[in-house]
Specification:
The complex is a heterodimer of chains A (392) and B (209).
Chain A lengths: L11 H24 L10 H10 L5 E3 L5 E3 L4 H6 L7 H4 L18 H15 L1 H8 L2 H7 L8 H5 L9 H13 L9 H7 L2 H5 L5 E9 L4 E2 L8 H9 L8 H12 L6 E9 L32 E6 L5 E6 L9 H4 L12 H27 L1 H9 L8
Parallel strand pairs in A: 3-6
Antiparallel strand pairs in A: 1-2, 3-4, 3-5, 6-7
Helix pairs in contact in A: 5-6, 12-13
Chain B lengths: L1 E4 L3 H25 L9 H27 L13 H21 L15 H26 L5 H6 L3 H26 L7 H8 L1 E4 L5
Chain lengths: 392, 209
């Protein structure tokens, strides 16, 4: 695990080790779909067990140059169950030479400095996210020396890294700011439930609507069972022409998902980013999206891309594409009863009905008036002859 | 020309607040729903106006309800208990609007203080005031704060169902607001019923017979 040697100057040997770690990580990533699901139960490698021989000791810590105590304890179970557990300690701590660890003489300025430098390990695999982060408000604050501005571990944790929702991640630090949304945003609590933070606070990112399976009776998202990836297969089977789910196919999928289910599962929609990577490019508050019509109008950008998903065993969504028209279809009353956004999910059938009523509402008086005008002379003649009482 | 007092002051106040309020609700509702086509005001302004006007009209509805509940004028809303009589009266009224009015036939309905609605109006206003208007207000209230009313929204089948009912009622009122003033202009003069809803007095033509 962590050693002061990680912070040493780059040497050819270190570069080789990092290259090796990168290769290991790439190999492990390619196996991730197979291995991630069983990470929680996978036995630890001998090397990892050796690391934890010392780093599982509660209270193990190192005194830094500024007097701070850097905790060196790692919860083995948390790491094993994390998304990185399958990669092993060396993937991120490749610079450590077991023969010289722990280094007798090492120098770490502060916990803050250590955290900033360790982001280099994340860069090895997550360079795309780091590129986005580099242009973010958080990164700018780090460069300015703000002591609380987060680096990678600030949001994702160091060892027990898991796919937490963006909401939970943000609220960890910004809980006090949630209420402030109510000062200007109608139904603020509802918006915070159905719109991911990054959907507004990463204004340059591409958004979408994710319709995720929800268990209303248990008040929680449906989580697919480990080793039984059924949702993807059902979605593929429902998608008869292979071009994404249309309104009929979505209804059929829901029927299949609920076949034999003890409790009905419904779909709840959320505005999310199309790629999680872009969630790292969080902007200044002044640039956050505040205009309602970014979502509340027909054809708004987030509503042009729709996915249907279930929460996978590892917490990450398993997604399947759907047509954007499913949101405004007449069948949505049946298949999406719990998702509605004024304007964004507008029904074309109701639009057509409104046009018909407008035409009828204007046409009936105009037609009636016209007929009255055409019959005016007849009425006058009748009135004169005493056959009627209305000459108008 | 005889004058009969058929619209008491509370009813007139309720009527005009309701009329202008519903027009405002329709306009702000159209703005909310068709932001991509119409841009008279911001979405947020339309939401705030729509909510405030909605609450004013809910309060106004209770002015109407309480007035009729606690006055003998409620008789104007008493339904005709004989289906055949109601059916014959409705048919006669339809025949008048669709045929007799062009010939100059007299209106088969004779207004009195306790019988101001013709059979078609009587049926329509019972449906509107006791079903569609309350339904519109109720669904609007649920949509106003979905988190607070989450249990009720779920009970009625979800936000999509509630919103669809609200929009269907909105579409009905769009048609109503177009046709109602025209029908109101079919009195013995085009402005007679409008004046009556301001003064309270309907002018009744003497029976030519």
């Amino acid at each position: 695990m962590k050693s002061s040697q990680d912070e040493g100057a780059a040497t050819p040997a270190k570069a080789r080790r990092q290259l090796l770690a990168g290769a290991i990580a790439a190999l492990a990533l390619s196996m991730a779909p197979v291995t991630a699901a069983s990470a929680a139960t996978a036995p630890m490698s001998e090397a990892d067990t050796a690391c934890l021989g010392c780093h599982s000791i509660e209270g193990l810590e190192k005194t830094l140059d500024n007097g701070e105590k850097l905790p060196l304890h790692v919860a083995g179970e948390g790491f094993a169950a994390s998304v990185h557990g399958v990669f092993g300690c060396a993937s991120c701590h490749a610079a450590i030479d077991p023969a010289r660890h722990p280094a007798a003489a090492s120098s770490i300025a502060s916990i803050r400095q250590f955290s900033i430098e360790r982001a280099g390990a994340c860069q090895m695999c997550h360079s795309d996210a780091l590129d986005q982060y580099g242009g973010s408000l958080h990164s700018a604050r780090v460069r300015e020396g703000h002591p609380l501005a987060p680096v990678c571990t600030g949001c994702h944790g160091a060892h027990a890294v898991s796919p937490r929702t963006a909401y939970e991640t943000c609220v960890g630090c910004h809980a006090a700011d949630l209420d402030a949304h109510g000062d200007w945003l109608p139904n603020a609590a509802l918006h915070q439930e159905v719109v991911s933070c990054a959907a507004c606070h990463a204004p340059d990112a591409a958004r979408m609507i994710d319709l995720r399976l929800y268990d209303g009776a248990a008040s929680k998202w449906v989580v697919e069972e480990e080793g039984a990836p059924l949702f993807g297969q059902l979605a593929q089977a429902a998608d008869t022409n292979g071009d994404g789910l249309d309104a009929n196919e979505l209804r059929n999928l829901l029927q299949e998902v609920n076949r034999g289910a003890a409790r009905p599962r419904t779909l709840r929609g959320r505005v999310e980013l199309r790629t999680d990577v872009e969630a790292h490019r969080l902007a200044e508050k002044s640039r956050a999206i505040r205009a309602c019509d970014n979502c509340h109008q027909y054809g708004a950008e987030p509503f042009r891309n729709v996915t249907v998903s279930v929460t996978g065993p590892d917490g990450r969504p398993v997604r399947y594409p759907a047509h954007k028209d499913v949101l405004g279809s007449a069948l949505a009353v049946q298949s999406l009863p719990e998702f509605y956004a004024i304007g964004g999910t507008r029904s074309r059938i109701l639009d057509a009905l409104l046009v018909l009523v407008l035409l009828g509402g204007a046409g009936v008086p105009i037609g009636h008036m016209t007929l009255k005008w055409l019959f005016r002379k007849y009425r006058a003649r009748r009135a004169r002859s005493g056959g009627g009482n209305d000459a108008r | 020309m005889q004058r009969i007092y058929v619209h008491p002051l509370p009813v007139r106040i309720w009527h005009w607040i309701n009329a202008f309020g519903f027009v405002a609700l329709i306009l702000t509702g159209v703005q909310l729903r068709y932001m991509d086509l119409i841009n008279v005001m911001s979405f947020k302004t339309a939401v705030n106006l729509h909510n405030w006007i909605g609450f004013v009209l809910i309060a106004n509805f209770f002015v109407w309800l309480l007035f009729y509940l606690f006055s003998d004028k409620i008789r104007v809303y008493h339904p005709e208990l004989s289906p055949m009589k109601h059916f014959r009266g409705s048919l006669r009224q339809l025949q008048y609007y669709g045929y007799g009015i062009f010939r100059g036939d007299p209106n088969p309905h004779h207004v009195t203080a306790y019988h101001k609605f013709n059979p078609l109006q009587s049926m329509m206003y019972q449906i509107i005031m006791l079903l569609i208007v309350p339904l519109q207000f109720f669904t609007g209230l649920l949509l106003w704060d979905l988190k607070h009313f989450a249990g009720a929204v779920e009970f009625f089948g979800g936000v999509r169902v509630v919103a669809t009912v609200h929009v269907l009622c909105f579409i009905f009122f769009v048609g109503f607001i177009l046709v109602h003033p025209y029908l109101a202009s079919l009195g013995h003069t085009p402005s007679a019923h409008f004046k009556a809803m301001i003064t309270g007095y309907e002018e009744i033509e003497k029976d030519p017979g």
